[in-house]
Amino acid sequence: MARKIRIEDAGFHHIINRGVERRVIFDTTEDKEKFLEIVCEVAAHYDFTIHAYVLMSNHYHLILENTRENLSAGMRQINASYAQYYNKKYQRTGHLWQDRFKSWYVFDEHYLFLLFRYIEFNPIVAQMRQKVGEYPYTLMHDILHNSVRDCMKKSFVLQQYDNTNELLKSLEIEMTQEEQEKISRFQKEATAYKTHPKKIQQKLKLDDYFKKEMSKTERNEAILKAWQDGFMQSEIAKFLELSDAGVSKILKKLKVKP
Fold first, then answer.
1. Total domain count for the chain?
2. How far is CA 243 from each of CA 37, 164, 236, 237, 246, rounded to the nearest angstrom?
3. Which CATH number do you get for residue 243?
4. In a shared domain, residues 90 and 160
5. Which is nearest to 66 in space by CA: 88, 50, 79?
6. For 130, which DSSP code?
7. CA 72, CA 187: separation in Å to the nearest integer?
8. DSSP labels for 53-85?
9. pLDDT score for 192
């Protein structure tokens, strides 16, 4: 089967790569640190911004933004450099990676924040940690410990959510079944299209969610939708003149159990 055409255009990309035969590729803390060192070196050279990441035992996720059509070149450098390091350290030969890498072009800002949540929840789903931010090799952990790497300091997460407590609060509620299915649908779609937006679609304003005349049920459903699309609880509360605790209570009440 011919490989699907990969979108190289400047913009946001969700990147995944796994070890061959799903084998462990990050055996030690040293391995993870080396991989991130390589990522940031390549990011500096290719003008990439890393917006989010997680390193699991046998795979990794990145949200990467490029400014030129150089995605494949940069990712090839990352994967090849780490494979060379790993094979030399563990005295092995052969392929380390399952494939070149998988990538999806992200053109929806609503999906971008959902994707960030999905990446941060990886260690929890794998039962490696119980709360977002506890697992060392995620952006949220770096933010909480003031250890954000240079290649991630321009992340949209840091630009849009300067209040760490509010950001963490927005990640406390588990992903719903609907959100998980949206991720799955997106990942099953083709990695490339002949035409697509060049720029990420802008997030709606809160005015767009709340009509002048709404029932309490409609308002609460709109609160959930706005939160799922990336608005912080404090933003929604201020707009509706509600307390943060009140918005939090509404969200927990409406949360769909996975």
1. 2
2. 42, 18, 9, 6, 5
3. 1.10.10
4. yes
5. 50
6. S
7. 19
8. EEE-SSEEEEEEEESSS-HHHHHHHHHHHHHHH
9. 39
- The C-alpha atoms of residue 22 and residue 250 are separated, in whole angstroms, by 41
pLDDT band at 3 (very low <50, low <70, confident <90, very high): very low
**What Rg do the C-alpha atoms of the chain give, in angstroms?**
19
pTM above 0.85, yes or no: no
Cα distance between residue 194 and residue 22, in whole Å: 31
CB count within 10 Å of CB 144 equals 16
What are the structure tokens assigned to 252, written together? 């927990």
Residue 23, classed as helix, strand or coil, is coil
Q: Match 């760490």 to its residue by tokens.
A: 164
Q: Are residues 26 and 99 in the same domain?
A: yes
Domain assignment present for 170: yes
- Residues 222 and 151 occupy one common structural domain: no
Of 201, 219, 202, the closest CA to residue 210 belongs to: 219
CB atoms near residue 102 (< 10 Å): 16
Which two three-digit tokens encode residue 14? 């969700």
